[in-house]
Amino acid sequence: MKPLAIKDDIYWIGSVDWNRRNFHGYSKSHMGTTYNNYLIVDEKVTLIDTVAEEFWGTLKCNIANVLGDRKIDYFVINHLEPDHAGCLALAVEKYQPEKIYTSPMGQKAMMAHFHYKDWPVEVVPTGTNINIGKRNLTFVETRMLHWPDAMLTYCPEDKIAFTNDAFGQNWATSERFADEVDRSKLEELMRNYYANIVLPYSPVVIKTLKALEEMNLDIDTVCPDHGLMFRGEDCAWAFKKYQEYAEQKPKNKAVIVYDTMWHSTEKMAKAVASGLAEEGVSVRLMCMKNNHHSDVMLEVFDSAAVILGSPTHNNGILPLMADMLTYMKGLRPQNKIGSAIGSFGWSGECVKVLTQWIEDMNMELVEPVKVKHVPDHDTLSQCFDQGKAIAAAIKAKLAE
Ligand code: FEO
């Protein structure tokens, strides 16, 4: 994809990675991603972020396409993760910038990644302003959104915020702006990205949004480093969505996440789902044999209640559930009700193990149900009632 002028003398020069499927365990099938980076052509030509190393050739072409033989004076590095800083060492060598601006934590991460000796790095804590000619750039640290080094770069003259990972979506497209694509798809992918990457840092999101509001920045273009950019009223839409995601308010929805050996736990899951649906709760059943943990996490993020199911296996739970729970706990979902179901043959630890996970994730526990071998009518009826009890807990939570 060729460079795109997003304002006078400001260009998107990113790369589209149609084949990317996995970011540290987060996978959104068939969607790919983009590594957005930007070039500002002013008295001091400024490059904002780079791209993943395998796109070094594309980056060089895009820069040459915009600049011809003109040099780059400044680099701004908002985040050191290799999908954005992967070409940094190559770019420093080729373009020999006068300055490399990064956050205080960015400088530490840059040293730890590149072990550089004589790079012209200048640390820019929050509030630092630099002049690049007709424009100024102001830096705002966004620590732990989602790495300690993250920062945002704001250009007041053009009302642009370069937000790095924040407001991103993993979606490889030929379109560049949010107003050019299907809104519901965009929202789903932005939510998916949030649920699988940003979620543990929700308190930081709330604090950062408040700080940005207090700084009263006039923003009419939001440029994340992944996916579509936002312009005009879509900027406020993106900020509002992040506020909503970060608050994690419960919805009238439950997800049953389970694995099953000989279908007993699955029968129990279906009975719990019937009890929930009977009380008007929207419910999803997700068997770990058929669903990726990233897709499950999106449903967990949206749900007021999470019901975990596994038979007892080798005195514990089935491995796909252990994988899911490790992933889920790390993402620290808040404000959830939890419950457990499971069948067993002899030792019967499954429900105890699942309950421990529920407690470790600070979920409000609704009485679990376990069944020896195969559920009969009475035990399925018990599961149905468990679904109704979870529905009542959801209603109480929604009323808080
Ligand atoms: Fe898109 Fe944290 O890298």
UniProtKB/TrEMBL annotation:
Residue span(s) of domain Flavodoxin-like: 254-391
Coiled coil: none
SUPFAM superfamilies membership: Flavoproteins (SSF52218), Metallo-hydrolase/oxidoreductase (SSF56281)
Superkingdom of source: Bacteria
Family per record: In the N-terminal section; belongs to the zinc metallo-hydrolase group 3 family.
Protein name, UniProt field: MBL fold metallo-hydrolase
Gene name per UniProt: roO
